[in-house]
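#dry-run=false #mode=assembly
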Amino acid sequence: MTALSMNAEAMTGSFTDAPVQAAHGFRAVLRALSQPGEIVTLSGATPPAPMSPAAGVVALVLLDGTTPVHLAGAHDCPALRDWITFQTGAPLVAAEAAMFAIGTWQALTPVTRFAIGTPEYPDRAATLIVESDHLTAEGTTLRGPGIDGSAQLSLPETGAFRANRALFPLGFDTLFCCGDQLAGLPRSTIVEGR
Amino acid sequence: MYVAVKGGERAIDNAHALLAEERRGDPAVPELSVAQIREQMTLAVNRVMAEGSLYDPDLAALAIKQARGDLIEAIFLIRAYRTTLPRLGHSNPVDTGAMAAVRRVSATYKDLPGGQVLGPTFDYTHRLIDFALAAEGEAPRAPQAEPLGPVPRVTGFLDREGLIEAEPDSDATPRDLTREPMELPADRALRLQALTRGDEGFILSLAYSSQRGYGRTHPFVGELRIGEVAVEMEIPELGFAVEIGEITVTECETVNQFTGSKTKAPQFTRGYGLVFGQSERKAISMSLVDRALRWEELGEDNTGAPVQDAEFVLMHADNIQATGFLEHIKLPHYVDFQSELELVRRLRAGAQEAAE
Amino acid sequence: MGLLARARPNRLAAVFPDMPDSTLLRGPETGAVMVRGRQGGTGAPFNLGEVTITRCSVQLPCGTVGHAHVQGRDKAHARRAAVLDALLQTQDAEALTRAVLSPLAAEETARRETRARKAAATKVEFFTMVRGDD
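#status=ok
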């Protein structure tokens, strides 16, 4: 093999029972996005650092060769680049061309560089996979579709999400990951505060 | 309008059972194997692969068996199957210049490097039914000769002298109509994809119409070649390209009427056809239609010919789209028809009243 | 790798019947690869159609990783080719080259040569009839 070939680490850490684990993973992501603020637990993926197991599951179930991915900050490392490439086949691209972006909130900022879709194709928008140090059902108040009254979620800030909500039906969608936990914040959610 | 109705489940089950029995035919006659279809109905297999847009001879042969020889039905089965496959990537463009050609003819030069190699062609048969084939016989054996040297492209000779328009290489990612719906205007790459998977009969008729004067392009078959090409793909985990298989393709390059202007010396133009399998009628047709669709880029007049109308050609070339829309009208439309019937009765009653 | 990808599954199984243990890293899974051609044979790429491919990645107990992408839908064939790819990076390479790759290569060369010879026999040998000039 040549020096260009991948490290064996890239080839491990995927599902061991793909059909079942992928279905569970997808269902959990769907639940997180349809009930914003709800925190779900994911399992089955052990990606290389610094990616969380939850983000690993999201990557395995949502990425393929047709979903360009942007790795931001410390996540843009050889081990993770190789893992994403081998496990999902997703092309790695700059922020502006990404359908998915993975990194800490700080690394992803400014988030205005990500795709928000077009009036004809609002679905051509990015989904941000935000790696967080803590994720709890407290903090900023959320309202809107999928929420019975109101919900709380620990967000890194509110301004960017309020600005994003103002773009609706355009705008990016967000998934927060922390360890094996995941919460969703779709563009349709109203984020209170300033 | 569509209204959900129930019933007919047993009728459908029994219809499937009857279909299976009719497919098998007389049980006293030996059953066809998939391998027999693959080996002896090769050109039907090739057509199903080309229009099904999936190269897999065993699968195409099975589809032909399942479809009782209805090739469009077989193509439908292949198209449905391919939607279940994950896309593992794309190949590097195949190098047809390096083809291991079993057939290679040119209508533009008699003597050319590599020569005129007829290959397994029907061209010089007399089209007389061969009753000997009705009897089982020994497997025929083809004679052999010293292998030929390389077979350079005919358009390459013209290109070197600047006599034909250049075909500049590029690494642009072509649009893929299996991933996003066809949007017009379609560039040449998208048109070629639509033509190579399009219905052979439709593409043939369009090409014929252009020969008869509806969008004439004065084509010569510069070269027609059939043979195997290697399929190579970049493998990320290896960091280099490897050969992942080998496919048979038919390639046709036409040399067409020239253009020129005060600033540009006259040059021949090109039409191109490339099709899975041994499919030369389709490849020649494709290159004629490709050339005709290039009228705008080459500064020619739009004479209103069907073959020059990209929307007409591209939106009607796919026989699975066509047959799906066509055949749906035989499915129940009871409610639509009832409303029409009501209307006609009312109008007739009105007309009768007025007459009285 | 190309040789293993093109080899007929039953031939590869015949020359390499006993597979040592290996762990599956990915697959074997069947999918489609979009084959591209070039406009005019040499120009910009376009999508010609897909081909079925089965891929597999394995790891031997010694840690060596092997990959295979083979044409068609035969999963056992893909796994066999991946295991061979891994073994060919070990000290067994020389013996396996002799026992497996050489016979496959020889068969393929013979098959191609025969086909080329049959094609060559259909080459037209033109001769010019005497012209009626004088």
